Amino acid sequence: MELRKNIKPGICAAKYCNHKVNGTRLCSTCRSKKCRENDPVKYAFTALKNNAKRRNILFTITLEQFREWCSKVIYIGHAGRASESYTIDRRHNDIGYHIDNIKVMKKGDNVKKYFYYDYRTKLTAYSTIQPEQAQQVENYF
Length: 141
Known about the structure:
By secondary structure, the protein is α+β, with helices and mostly antiparallel strands. Helix content is 38%, strand content 13%. The chain has two domains: 38 residues, no CATH class; 74 residues, no CATH class. It contains five helices and four strands.
């Protein structure tokens, strides 16, 4: 992240950012971007942990376990918003986030577990499926 040469008081020090700040050099958006650039594994871990907390899901993974898992499955660098990017999926939804209960899955395949779109009739079906059915969907693809 590039910083400005002439820092104005009350304005974020990041180049091309004009957000207001109170008592810090960087706004929250630029601070977040800087953390993501410096340590992408820790950033992904924190985001996963915070989302689990927000959704009231048990989370027992440590940062060290997550770092080892990410290097083993090559998660960082392939995560994103596109349907071909990777996401972290729980094998059994009732257990929560445990190091033995997570796996990498393409985002599009994860959505296919819960949604069905009929191109002929243009209808969408939504469902909640059991873990056994999810295994059948994974084996299908």
